[in-house]
Design goal:
The chain is of the alpha/beta class and about 200 residues long. It is built from eight helices and seven strands, in the order βαβαββαββαααβαα. It has a domain at about 15-105 and about 135-180: Rossmann fold (3-Layer(aba) Sandwich). The chain has a five-stranded parallel β-sheet, with helices on both faces. A two-stranded antiparallel ribbon has the order 3-4. The protein binds adenosine-5'-triphosphate and magnesium ion. Magnesium ion binds near residues 27 and 28.
């Protein structure tokens, strides 16, 4: 069995601490706060994709990522690092010590995304993804429940969330079992209230 040696925040042979979550949940902000506290570099996946030419624009303005390329690039990292991006579940599972999925109440998420130049469709898609636990499901599918933790960012600041993550990593706080957030109802209220194209989404 692996396990953490004294003072370590990553397990031997598993140098990566991954931070995932719906766009706007605060992955970049939290990673920037967490990395220096742990003395670890932060790898932003969207920058890695850009620098290495691993993405191309698609017809709707979003980015299509070369998943295999990202996977290989992360596999080559030996030094303990914090990796953040909403496709952090692309990290090679056997190289990840812990994957945090950041969560945010859909109403606040909509406020955070408002200043961005998103189409109504993209806004709806992201709010709905938060409601449907999409990033959590991807994370647990990739790693299993044991190494996946969620953290709420609603009405908190990134430093505060980073403190929570640091405590989990240092073994000072037992992370709750994943799956405790129920964001679907609020997400549907918002998505249906946004108007624009597309049918109303119903909860059956
Ligand atoms: N508790 C919090 N934790 C993290 N970010 C927060 C928090 N509260 C507010 N924010 C704010 O939310 C906004 C979105 O954060 P950020 O850009 O880091 O999200 P992201 O998940 O990296 O998004 P993307 O997937 O588009 O890169 C920022 O303005 C950030 O400061
Ligand atoms: Mg970001």
């Amino acid at each position: 069995m692996g396990g953490l040696a004294r003072g370590r925040v990553t397990e031997k042979g598993r140098p990566l601490i991954a931070i995932s979550g719906t766009p706007g949940t605060g992955k970049s902000a939290v990673a920037e706060a967490l990395g220096p506290r742990l003395g670890l570099p932060v790898i932003a996946l969207n920058e890695l994709v850009r620098e290495r030419g691993l993405g191309r624009g698609s017809y709707d303005g979003s980015m299509v990522v070369d998943e295999e390329g990202v996977h290989e690039a992360l596999k080559a990292i030996d030094r303990p690092s914090v990796v953040e991006g909403h496709f952090a579940d692309l990290a090679p599972a056997d190289r990840v010590s812990r994957l945090f999925v950041l969560r945010c109440r859909p109403r606040e998420l909509a406020d955070r995304l408002a200043p961005r130049d998103y189409s109504l469709e993209k806004l709806r898609e992201n709010i709905l993804a938060e409601g449907l636990d999409t990033c959590l499901i991807d994370a647990v599918t990739a790693l299993g429940e044991e190494r996946v933790s969620e953290a709420d960012t609603t009405r908190r600041c990134p430093e505060d969330v980073a403190t929570e993550l640091e405590k989990v990593l240092r073994g000072e706080r037992t992370p709750p079992v994943p799956g405790r957030f129920s964001h679907l109802e609020e997400a549907l209220e918002i998505v249906n209230g946004l108007g624009g194209v597309g049918p109303d989404v119903m909860l059956h």
